């Protein structure tokens, strides 16, 4: 790369870079003007580390954004283009990606100019033989960079040039292989259908033999079959890919595709497209049996087998039950089982992890179809090697099963254990087993034993897997099943023991019982790990027994004689303390036991027992109390790995070295604690090393040897004590850190109890007491979520709060006497949401208030006098649920009114628009009460940003169907008229926005206006629209002027589209541009230089090739017309002339790229504006084509507006009001319209599309 870059630096500079005197500077590329930091970016881009490359690319873009027009941009483009063909193959994709990001960030850079620079730098006709391969890859990566920028499919000219270049590159198969064809397919898959119809005849030959010659051609055929089937049929005629004569060629193509992805280990796209085509044409059995099983699988080619396996996994979501049965009983699934058995060697590639991903994705995607889940899991469990299933007993995909599918799967396992159906299994034997095994081993009894052994281990692993959601009854059934068949035999069936009524088709052997017994007791023995000490076990079991007895005594049968000691705590509190003690142990089994036990007792929970749990979770209280977590010096449990112990030893060594370094630093530092300083001074004075007050008159005397030795011993002991004190502080700090880690882990385990409570007892009133403690944990963890434990605690708390509490289907319906407290809590939550510094935290508080609203609304008021009977009779039907509920609207409405006012008035409010939209959607009556505040903030002294937010809230609120039933017809019309008046006042300054916030206010106001007009039209309301119509007609010249000046092109285009949407509802149609006349007379703006160039590029008719007339005509239709009207394209000067004309036109535009500014195609001229415009200094210069187009648009639009808006519409307007129904019948019914609810379409895409249509010369 260094050699190529040095060659690049030695090249002559372009004429534009030379000085006026003609002398070349010593630094040809202006390297002295660039900093060393800027030049280092390009070296870092080519480094192998991905993080370094991405960081360098980002820094380069940031550097260029500050200098978009400087010499740095030219140098960056030249350097990146040079890097496309460097010698190191690993560096080429890096430069290609950097170039793509650069073109994506700076859209004013023409793509055609990049292609021209690449062709000029790496000319395939002039390049040396040794540089052919780098030059070819430079062209390929250059096209890929244009495609990855996202702009290629929008630029018709660059797209056509790229397609032709890829076709040229495809001829160099020795160097590039099939990469150009793959790039071509990827590009064409993104282009619109109209463009694909135009390009298809040029890239796909009308020969089925060519189509079936390579995977790329077949993939291109399938792409056309999917997107433009009519054009494909016109080109090739009717084609049946799955005919008898085409099947062998399909097999060959798939084999080639499998070989091409051998290193990538992925599924070729052509195989999946063939599968979809077979399903679409109802030819799936023929494709699966003839093409795959009887064709590709018989090739005995390992990549072909892996293609079949990947296609099997990818086909699972696409198949029906009948098709799934065909697939899971065929040769491919049997061959997959053989691969699993034979690929157990360390040096063999294993496909099992990849298939697990396919099956996991399928099971996770069809949670609502338990039958399909069961069918797939049973099918894979039925693949057996001489009776033993090939999938492991701990197959982890079962965690994605729904509860019903899991229950049915366990039932299938039990049935297969009792009565094995060997005929339903897809059984096989490997080649080695067939050669070496004795025929006596192939008996049903051996297969039954292997199957039952696997089933027993499978059942136990399902119960042990904590990630599998299972019911307690299922666990009990599995335990009883394993226990019974481990030790017992049925002599006589009895109904009291259901297991005795189960019959065995094959007798249960003793070795089978031993396997089941060992698996069962291996699971049950784990329960004793948490109880190590016999004394502790006895005490704990005694407490549990006492709790059980007291829970049974708590029945209503208790008499008065059995008095209960008031000082003795309730049994549930004792049991909660025991569970908390078990959770303090680092045992996963104890964690599962605690969850299971708490699920049984959570219905008896008392406020005091809940408070025991909340005290552990309280971050403020747990920081002060050290009794909850005790750090001991005992040995680590066996469950901890050696890596943890090694890491702790390394931390201790690091701490010791840190202590030594800190002690040395403190010894050298003078800032020591005062106690140590005083002790040091005392020792020195005692040894007479320091002179006292009387030493001034005495002569200094040297200390003797004994005195020096004593002084040394005193100083050594003093510093040793100081070192011990420093070490003690370090140990204390380390101990506190370990205690904090243990405390967080303990809190995470205690959250299991909270999760069990909110999932099993969502209607318990105690659940309401969890809101603020959980919010406290979230707020505290948001501030201190630096460690992994803090993040895990935050994520788990947020998941419980959001999914299991606020979004729960059931909630408390018996608040009792807590209505007043709940209202106070709701008010407190809303106020706290408005005081948060982070919007994410405020969202949790706001959602908590919505949950309380739901609870209060769902509870009926028995004695709460919310309204008088007269008001209840006069209230509307929509207010009946609130009138009979505990929700006090008079108290709640001011709370949210204050929050909404704060949101629409403060500069930085933590509240957001989605919060209030959620409130409006769930409680439309509250939305009705809050509408005046939103209407008030549409105009007035508030900031433009708040006005835009008010308009957005009003637009979404008025679009909700839940709000309309809260109003009567007259009230609704009055509300619409009031909002329309506010919007009309807000739109008087339309088109005069100076900042981004003001522009957003204009857009939001227009969107609100469109929503209002749509509501008026759909609901047939009678609202006066004359004022808004006159206002919009008067604003048209200002909008036209803003578009002509090119200010805020993106926002102006969106504003312009919304403007015409509103005018459309008012009965004024948007003018359409006429077809461009490519043979018109050139305008006066063409200089003699252009005429001279036209003569240079002129080709006489006698010199033209007659055979290329149709192709030339097609190319002329696809490309923009030349400035000279009917001048034919030249071979040498056309590109230069077009480039310079584009550059001269763009140089006067106000720094806006031509690709993003489709202003000439959307200009509108009012009747009072003359048709011809003069060029002012602020108006950009226009080419003859644009001037001619503008003149036509001005004439058409002027006539249209004069007739429709000036006369016809005024005749249709009534005198007192305008109905939204009258101007609408003239509109087309099924014409596509922009969606206001989902936002505007992509401006870049629409702009590029309009530009292409202008170049084609057709109507948009």
From TrEMBL:
PANTHER family: MYB-BINDING PROTEIN 1A, MYB-BINDING PROTEIN 1A FAMILY MEMBER. It comes from Trichechus manatus latirostris. It is found in: Nucleus. This is Myb-binding protein 1A. It holds the Pfam family DNA_pol_phi. The keyword Nucleus applies. Residues 623-634, 645-668 have a biased composition (Acidic residues). Residues 1091-1108, 1247-1260 have a biased composition (Basic residues). Signal peptide: none annotated. Residues 1-26, 621-672, 1070-1260 are annotated as: Disordered. Belongs to the MYBBP1A family. The lineage of its organism: Eukaryota, Metazoa, Chordata, Craniata, Vertebrata. Keywords: Nucleus. Residues 635-644, 1109-1118 have a biased composition (Basic and acidic residues). One of its GO terms (molecular function) is RNA binding. InterPro entries: ARM-type_fold, DNA_pol_V/MYBBP1A. GO terms for cellular component: nucleolus. Residues 1158-1184 have a biased composition (Low complexity). Its main location: nucleus.
């Amino acid at each position: 790369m260094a050699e190529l870059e040095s060659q690049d630096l030695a090249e002559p500079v372009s004429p534009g870079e030379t000085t006026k005197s003609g002398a070349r500077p010593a630094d040809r590329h202006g390297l002295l003007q660039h900093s060393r930091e800027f030049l280092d970016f390009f070296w870092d881009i080519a480094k192998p580390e991905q993080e370094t490359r991405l960081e360098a690319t980002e820094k380069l873009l940031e550097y260029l954004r500050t200098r978009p027009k400087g010499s740095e941009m030219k140098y960056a483009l030249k350097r990146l283009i040079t890097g496309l063909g460097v010698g190191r193959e690993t560096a080429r994709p890096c430069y290609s990606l950097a170039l793509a990001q650069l073109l994506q960030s700076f859209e004013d850079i023409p793509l055609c100019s990049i292609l021209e620079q690449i062709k000029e730098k790496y000319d395939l006709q002039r390049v040396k033989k040794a540089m052919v391969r780098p030059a070819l890859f430079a062209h390929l990566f250059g096209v890929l960079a244009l495609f990855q920028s996202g702009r290629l499919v929008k630029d018709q000219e660059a797209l056509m040039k790229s397609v032709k270049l890829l076709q040229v590159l495809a001829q160099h198969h020795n160097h590039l292989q099939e990469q150009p064809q793959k790039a071509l397919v990827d590009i064409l898959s993104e282009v619109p259908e109209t463009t694909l119809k135009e390009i298809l005849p040029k890239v796909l030959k009308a020969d089925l033999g060519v189509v079936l010659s390579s995977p790329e051609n077949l993939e291109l055929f399938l792409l056309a079959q999917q997107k433009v089937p009519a054009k494909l049929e016109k080109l090739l005629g009717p084609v049946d890919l799955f005919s008898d004569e085409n099947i062998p060629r399909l097999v060959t193509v798939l084999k080639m595709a499998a070989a091409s992805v051998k290193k990538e280990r992925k599924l070729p796209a052509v195989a999946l497209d063939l599968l979809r085509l077979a399903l679409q044409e109802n030819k799936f059995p023929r494709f699966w049996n003839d093409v795959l099983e009887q064709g590709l699988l018989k090739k005995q080619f390992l990549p072909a087998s892996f293609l079949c396996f990947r296609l099997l996994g990818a086909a699972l979501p696409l198949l029906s039950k009948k098709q799934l049965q065909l697939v899971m009983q065929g040769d491919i699934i049997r061959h997959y089982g053989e691969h699993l058995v034979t690929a157990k060697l360390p040096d063999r590639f294993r496909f099992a992890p990849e298939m697990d991903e396919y099956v996991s994705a399928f099971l996770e995607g069809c949670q609502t179809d338990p039958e399909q889940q069961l069918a797939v899991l049973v099918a894979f469990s039925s693949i057996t090697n001489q009776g033993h299933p090939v999938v492991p007993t701990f197959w982890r995909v079962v965690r994605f099963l729904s509860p019903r599918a899991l229950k049915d799967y366990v039932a299938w396992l039990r049935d297969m254990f009792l009565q094995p159906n060997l005929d339903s299994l897809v059984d096989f034997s490997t080649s080695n087993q067939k050669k070496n095994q004795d025929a006596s081993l192939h008996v049903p009894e051996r297969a039954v034993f292997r199957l039952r052994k696997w089933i027993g281990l499978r059942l136990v692993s399902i119960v042990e897997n904590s990630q599998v959601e299972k019911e307690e009854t299922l666990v009990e059934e599995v335990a009883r099943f394993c226990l019974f068949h481990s030790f017992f035999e049925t002599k006589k069936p009895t109904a009291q023991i259901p297991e005795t009524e189960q019959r065995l088709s094959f007798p249960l052997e003793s070795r089978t019982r031993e396997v089941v017994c060992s698996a069962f007791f291996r699971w049950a023995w784990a329960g004793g790990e948490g109880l190590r000490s016999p004394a502790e076990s006895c005490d704990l079991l005694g407490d549990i027994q006492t709790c059980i007895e007291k829970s049974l005594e708590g029945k209503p049968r208790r008499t008065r004689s059995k008095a209960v000691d008031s000082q003795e705590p309730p049994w549930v509190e004792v049991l909660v303390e025991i569970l908390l003690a078990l959770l303090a142990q680092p045992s996963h089994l104890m964690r599962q036991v605690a969850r299971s036990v708490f699920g049984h007792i959570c219905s008896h929970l008392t406020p005091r027992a809940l408070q025991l749990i909340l005290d552990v979770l309280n971050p403020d209280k747990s920081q002060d109390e050290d009794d909850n977590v005790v750090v001991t010096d005992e040995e680590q449990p066996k469950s901890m790995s050696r890596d943890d112990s090694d890491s702790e030893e390394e931390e201790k060594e690091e701490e010791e070295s840190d202590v030594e370094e800190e002690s040395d630093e403190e010894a050298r530092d003078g800032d020591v604690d005062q106690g140590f300083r005083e002790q040091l001074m005392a020792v020195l004075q005692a040894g007479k090393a320091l002179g006292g007050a009387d030493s001034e008159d005495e002569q200094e005397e040297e200390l003797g040897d004994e005195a020096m030795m004593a002084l040394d011993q005193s100083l050594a002991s003093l510093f040793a004590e100081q070192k011990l004190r420093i070490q003690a502080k370090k140990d204390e700090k380390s101990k506190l850190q370990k205690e904090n880690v243990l405390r967080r882990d303990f809190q995470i385990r205690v959250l299991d109890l909270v999760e069990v409570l909110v999932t099993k007892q969502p209607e318990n009133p105690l659940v309401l007491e969890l809101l603020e403690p959980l919010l406290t944990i979230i707020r505290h963890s948001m501030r201190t979520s630096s460690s992994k434990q803090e993040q895990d605690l935050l994520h788990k708390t947020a998941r419980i709060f959001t999914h299991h509490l606020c979004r729960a289907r059931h909630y408390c319906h018996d608040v009792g006497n807590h209505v007043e407290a709940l209202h106070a809590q709701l008010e407190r939550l809303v106020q706290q949401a408005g005081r948060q510094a982070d919007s994410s935290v405020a969202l949790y508080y706001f959602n908590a208030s919505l949950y309380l609203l739901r609870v209060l609304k769902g509870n009926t008021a028995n004695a709460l006098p919310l309204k008088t009977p007269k008001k209840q009779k006069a209230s509307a039907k929509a207010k009946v649920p609130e009138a009979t509920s505990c929700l006090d609207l008079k108290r709640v409405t001011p709370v949210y009114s204050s929050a909404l006012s704060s949101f629409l008035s403060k500069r930085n409010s933590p509240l957001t628009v989605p919060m209030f939209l959620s409130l409006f959607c769930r409680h439309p009556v509250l939305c009705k009460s809050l509408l005046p505040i939103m209407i008030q903030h549409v105009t007035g002294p508030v900031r433009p940003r708040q006005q835009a937010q008010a308009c957005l809230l009003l637009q979404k609120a008025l679009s909700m169907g839940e709000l309309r039933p809260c109003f009567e017809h007259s009230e609704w019309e009055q509300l619409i008229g009031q909002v329309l008046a506010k919007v009309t006042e807000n739109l008087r300054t339309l088109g005069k926005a100076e900042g981004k916030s003001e522009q957003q206010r204009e857009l939001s106001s227009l969107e609100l206006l469109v929503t209002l007009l749509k509501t008026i039209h759909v609901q047939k309301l009678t609202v006066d629209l004359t004022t808004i119509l006159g206002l919009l007609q008067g604003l048209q010249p200002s909008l036209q002027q803003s578009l002509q000046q090119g200010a805020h092109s993106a926002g102006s285009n969106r504003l312009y589209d919304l403007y015409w949407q509103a005018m459309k509802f008012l009965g004024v149609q948007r003018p359409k541009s006429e077809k461009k006349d490519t043979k018109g007379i050139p305008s006066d703006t063409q200089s003699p230089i252009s005429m001279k160039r036209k003569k240079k590029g002129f080709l006489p008719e006698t010199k033209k090739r007659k055979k290329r007339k149709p192709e030339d005509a097609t190319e002329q239709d696809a490309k923009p017309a030349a400035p000279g009207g009917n001048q034919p394209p030249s071979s040498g000067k056309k590109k230069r002339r077009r480039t310079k004309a584009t550059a001269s036109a763009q140089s006067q535009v106000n720094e806006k790229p031509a690709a993003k500014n489709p202003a000439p195609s959307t200009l509108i001229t009012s009747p009072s504006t003359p048709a011809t415009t003069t060029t002012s200094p602020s108006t950009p210069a226009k080419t003859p084509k644009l001037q001619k187009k503008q003149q036509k648009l001005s004439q058409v639009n002027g006539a249209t507006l004069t007739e429709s808006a000036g006369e016809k519409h005024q005749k249709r307007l009534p005198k007192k009001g305008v109905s939204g129904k009258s101007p609408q019948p003239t509109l087309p019914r099924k014409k596509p319209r922009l969606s206001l609810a989902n936002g505007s379409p992509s401006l870049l895409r629409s702009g590029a599309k309009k530009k292409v249509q202008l170049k084609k010369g057709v109507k948009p």
